[in-house]
Structures are given as C-alpha cells and as structure tokens.
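Subject: mismatched residue count in predicted assembly?

I count 665 residues in my input, but I want to confirm that the predicted structure covers every chain. Input:
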Amino acid sequence: MSNMATASCNVDELLAQAERDEAEKLRSIAVDKELELEFDLGNLLACDKNRLETRDFTGEEKHDFLRSLARDNTQLLINELWKLPTERIQEAVVAKLPEPTTPLPREKPPPRPRPPTKWEQFAKLKGIQKKKKTNLVWDETAKEWRRRWGYKRAKDNTNEWLIEVPQTADPNEDQFVKRITAKKERVAKNELNRLRNIARAQKLKVPGMGLTPVSRQSKDDLVRAASVARTSTASVGKFQERLPKEKPAKGTGKRRKFQPVIGDFSAEKDKQLELLKMMESKRPKLNVTKAVNKQMREDDREEAAARNSKRGKQAGRKGRRDNAAPGKGKGKMGARGKKAGGKPQRGKPSGGKKSKPGKR
Amino acid sequence: MTQSDGIIKPKTKRSKRFLQSRAPKLTENGKSAMIMKGGNANQTVSQALKDIYSLKKPNAVLYKKKNITRPFEDSTSLEFFSKKTDCSLFLFGSHNKKRPNNLIFGRLFDFHVLDMIELGIEKYVSLSEIKMTKCPEGTKPMLVFAGEAFDMDNEYKRLKSLLIDFFRGPSVPAVRLAGLEHVLHFTAVNGKIFMRSYRCLLKKSGCRTPRIELEEIGPSFDFVLRRTHLASDDLYKLSHKQPKALKPKKKKNVSHDAFGTKFGRVHMQKQDLSKLQTRKMKGLRKRKREVVDDGESPKVAKVDS
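Triage response: the counts match. Full output below for your records.
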C-alpha cells in the first residue's frame, strides 16, 4: 500500500513538474499585449497599434524602452512566422510565406494590350485567320529541307547570277538593280505602315500616305504628286500659283459619308430620338417666375382699372379713359375681322381649286 | 511616350531583352532605389545615405556626385534619373540652414513623383560606430511598426506605406527560418520617428519557436517629420490598380465556412427511373406472346388493302 501511495505521489509530482516546465518554456516566448499585432507575413511585417508609455522617455531609458519594445514585437512576429508550414530544402528549413496583404502602389501601370494594326482590323472584319506555315520547306534545287525565309532560305532568288529579261521590259534596264530597289521600297513602305500604326495607336494625327513608290505612275498618281508638292510649302500652298487649266486634285476634299441603308438599328433609333429631343427642347419653356410676375402685374392692373372706373363713376366722366378702352377694342375688332375673313374662304371652294390645279 | 510603346524598335536581341526588362509587366520586378545627395550635404547626411544604401544594397544605386536639385520645387530631374536607372524609389539627402540634416524619402509611379516625405535627422548613429557583427548584405529585413500614429495620422500612414515599400526588399515565396536575422523597427512617439536596426539572435526556448534576443547594429535615426508631398487620392488609387489577369479566378460552387471547411455544390442530372433495376419477378415480366400478336396485326391490314 505504502509503495503504491508513494508511486502515485511521484506521478502527481512529475505531472505538476512537467506542467510547470511547459509554462516556463511558454513564458520565455510569450508576450502580453493589450491589442494584438497586425501581421503581414508575406512582407515579414508587423504593426503594433498599442499606445506607448511615454513617461520614461529620456536618455538611456529611451534606448532600453525601444529595445524591449522591439524585442517583444519581434518575438510576436517570429512566433507567427514559426507557425507557417515549413519544408526542408537542402538541409535548410524554409517557411512558405503567404501572399503579401499590404496594398502597395505599382511601379508602372499594368501593360496595355497592343492596339490592332490596320491589317488586323481588316482581317477581323473579313474574318481572315492566320494560317500557321511550317518553318521548313523542301528545296528542289538543293535537295534538302530549308527555312522558308531568312538566311539560307529555300528558293532563294537573290543569289542568282542570271536573270531572264522579260519580253515587255526595257532591254537596257538592269534587272538586278530593279530587284534590289523593289525590295528596298517594300521595306520602306512596311516601315511607314508600322509608324502609321503606332501613330494611330497613340491617337495622334495619322500622317497622309503622300505618295508611295510604285513601278509606274498613273495619271492620277501624277496629279496627286503635284498637289502634294503644292501643299508642301511653309504656308501649306496658300501662295502657290496654279497653272492655266489646272484642275484641282481629286480626292483631296472632304468626302460625304452616308449611313448604310440597313444596318445599325439601335444607332439609328438613338439618332432619331436625339432629333426629337432637340425639337422638344426648342419649344419655349414655362418660366414660372416670369409667368407669376406677369400674372401679378395683370391682377394689379385690373385692380387699378377697377378702382379707376369706380372713381370715374364717382368723379363723373373722364374723356381720355373712355377713349383708351375703344383703342383696345380695335385690336379685338381686327381679330374678329380676320376670323370673318376666314369664313369666306371656306365659302369659296372654287378659289382653292384654282390655286392647286396641278395636284388634282 | 515612354520606352515601352514600341516606337523604339530594338535592332539587336540584347537591346530587345533590355527593353523588355524595363517594360511594364503583370508581376513587376522589385523596386530599386536611387540614393543621391543635393548641392550641400554634410558628413552626417552623406554617411546616412551610405548606410541606407548598404541596407538596401542589391536593389539600389548610390549616386556619387552632387545633384543640385530640390525635389519639392522641381521634380523633373528626379523623373529623368528614374527613367535612366529604372528606379521607382528615391532617397535624397541635403543639409542647409533652414532644414539641417534633411532626408527625403519618395517613390514614383510611371516615372512621376507619387509621394515624397521629408524627414529631418535629429540624432544619428552610423553603421560603423556600433562595433557588432552585421547582417549579411541583401538580407530581407523583418519590419515592425509601433505607435498609434502610424494608424491615425494620414501623413504617418503614407510614411509607413512608403517605408514598407522602401525597405521590404524582394518579394519572395519562401524564407529560410534560420536566416531571419535583421529587424527594422520604426516607432512613432511624441511626434518623432525612431528607426532602429537590430540583429536578431534565435535562442533556445525549449519549444519549437525560439526566444528572441536583439542586438543593435545600426544605423539608428531619430527623425522628425518635415514637409510632405502626398499623391492625390485619384492618382494613389490609380497606382494601386492591379491588372485583371492577376486577380485570382473565382471558383464556382466552392465555398468555405468560418472554420475553413470546404463546401461544394454538386449538380446532379435527373435520374432516369424507367431504367431503374428493381426486383425481378416472374409476374411482371413482359410476355413474348403479346409482342408476337402486335406484330401480326399490321400484316393482316396489309392483306386487306
């Protein structure tokens, strides 16, 4: 029995000891704070919102205060960091950090999608889709697979030592030079188009094409060239003299644009509604203050007139006053006269017929 | 027009790579800082700039020469330098009679100044004055902000955001626990801001989490807040705008409750009950005879016609 008792005693003691040890261990890493800290573990950041005791804040005390504050806060941050899931990578224990939660401004605005080029717009409109071509093609002469274009391309016609002169071509023309200039012009045109696309994307004023190089200039081209040359002065061709019998260049003025006959119904509806709205807005609006003032003035006048008439009756006759009333009556008479004039028109259907003979 | 508009067409692969590295991206490069001094900078300020440079080192550019400019009056030269070195953070040090020992922390958005906050150094202990073992260069620091001012006052809030931006280092998905050495502690008390830098010693505590002891390594500053130039709310909001592609996609029919339990909504097709397998009984079976009878009747009709 006694043995049993001592054993149970020991067990209790041991448990109590273990509990105390545990508490001791926790005490070394536990920190008491009135308000809990806010953590952003993605940035290894902690924010302590507690009110700081500023009494002992002079000289050496300040130093110690700051250090103890920092120690407590760092301990809390480390406690939080050690709770994160860990991984072992090459004998190093690594904690996986969550995404940062503190919003911080970006360095540059997010990338915008590239605006479509003129060709891309056109292709979308027409439903033209890009076809993927193979990079390598079979070259018959070399008997091997070669790149479609670029250095060492298949069917390379730039390295030919002999070019057949076409029957229609000028025999004295150098076909090699012609080929090279044609290539250069294509490259230049492409560059120009690139710049125009950029200008459009920037919403700048897209420069006119002017004249692009072509093999043979037609009459229209020449007329356009002349007009471009005329306007290419400092004063945009204002003081340029015209040749006798010279016609203005075609296609330089404004072009009228019409809506399609059938198409965007909603836009058409909007347009019509807009028009109706405008017509509505043209109607004179009721100005309440003005109307009220007018009414009040009229009332006043009536009142005054009534008073005057009373006084007139009392005082006897006043010629002028009496004269004034018939003056107004004249207008009324005139209106009546107009109405009267209207009646005979109804009565004279023959005259109406005569006026519009063509329509009947 | 910035460099990224595709107007400059790179002629070599190398220049193309260079332009791409500077173009705006969905997930951006870490912000780097340029550290420069003004026309007049005394020993304290230049030493402070050098120390902050050593804290920020791999992601910073230290300008050796004087730059006679006043960021609060004209920020064009700052914007020019930012474009040149592709830095969006700056630290400008100067010293004059009106504002002695002056540091200007700032950041830029799209090569334009977003925030600038001027701090005067009241007391400064440099990195070399404290003889202690220092942290290795490029250690990602732990940042701690203490004091209610950092959450109450608008200017202090911005200052906190700016300091986080300035000192946080590269954003990383994981961190080596034993390598958490450096602590930057900012305290706002009595209208002053105390910046202290400590080395963190991990001591055994008996449980998994270590006990922390701190050792001051410097530099340490006592700052006072001077002039500020804060971005307007519109610009500030615009600078925080994240591209749509970065937002996590919403998962349909999956939800979580307060305890983190995952719930899913399952949509079932309607069951076809006619094909349900039930208990087979002889009496319910279809009879072959009836089927035969059905087959005969149309034949008879045919004969009739």
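Residues 321-360 of chain A have pLDDT under 50 and may be disordered. Marking this ticket as 'not a bug'.
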